[in-house]
Input
Amino acid sequence: MLRKKSIGWILSLILVLTAVAGCSSGKGASGDGESSPQGTGTGGAAQQPEKVTLRFSWWGSEERHKALLEAIDLYMEKNPHVTIEPEYGGFDGYYQKLVTQFAGNTAPDLTPLSFDWIQEIAVNGDLVHDLFQFRDYIDLDAFDQNLLQKYTVFNGKLVGLPMGVNGMVTVYNKEFFRRHNIPEDTKWDWETIHRIGKQVHEQNPEDYLLGLLDQGIYRKFLMPFVNQRTGNQFIQDDYTLGFTVEDIEAAFAYYRSLLDDGVLEPVEESKLYSTAEDSPKWLNGHIGITLSLASTIPGFANGPEVDVSSYPIPADAKTSGVLVNPSNPLAIAKSSKHPEEAAKFASWLLTAPEAAEILKGVYSVPAVPANMTVLREKALINPTIVRAVEIALENPGDPVNGISGNSEVDQLATDYLDKVAFNQMTPRAAAEEFVSRLQDKLAGMPR
Output
């Protein structure tokens, strides 16, 4: 995950500058995605719908871009009064651009939210609509209701529609396993990764069992590692810490041991790439496993043949720590001039079977069960993605609360992991200073 700089000043500006667009009344969209005519006027003849333009912004792979563009074209064909302007690119810089747009009241009408942005943008910032207000325009009943309540409802508000269901798993290189005689049914925990990884590197110094932990390391490693030890949220709902200095020290020391013993590829190399599948070591078969979300699996298609297994879980873990969440909840900005039309499009994009057949697995497994059935029956979704989500759902961790997913917490944790990785601080010293600084940061955060 992209590292983010402190955005406290931006969020303060957001709360001052953001204009809140009101919701007008209206009837719902028809089931096939076509908008209902507006009013009849004095003569009783149905008026043509008002022409509207919506901006839809997202990030992702080329495959995702192509699918969403195709879906947009189909929706506009079915709804000629709607023009949807796509804005898309890579993940780098997306968050900073988005919060700046919110601050300047120029945010896109629709945008997916990374799960760790929800606290700042949707909860503290209150910058996106409560989609429960648009029940007349969104087929909420189509979604897995438990998923909505557990992961996208905050303080009674539905902050976004899940574009899929995602889960963290271990992605492994099948040929690497054969070469090093690693059974594919290995049950991974942190000790097993260290033991086997050390053996692998001793057999071949060019090979590393584990790759690219530094990108997104807070959510992929530190938070679940600590959750497994404590059984608590990383940060409790009352903004107190769910762990001790000793818990963090153990995580930092383990991370350092992975680097010292050749289990994990050197950070000097991995930091050059944003994803494991882009790393030359992965592409050339010198890395065995990486920890990744199901939605990223299509990105591995150009490298070695992969399969998936469970995220590492110690036998004595108090919670599995396995991250399960909605893929990028699709939110509607409060500054949108046409929130009802945005809601109609969002509903069609995520609930219509024809849209699901276009998107396939670009946002992991659909959050609408009926669409999942359609994709399976027509073999339109990568079975490895489906298997990854099923594995994650076998033993999911508790939903991550909003403050634990805060981007400033993420950044602070990543900074101290870097200090440990580059031998700038010992695990103990880094743990003590991290805890002190985190407590100071939490004390100054709005509740």
Summary: The chain is about 40% helix and 10% strand.
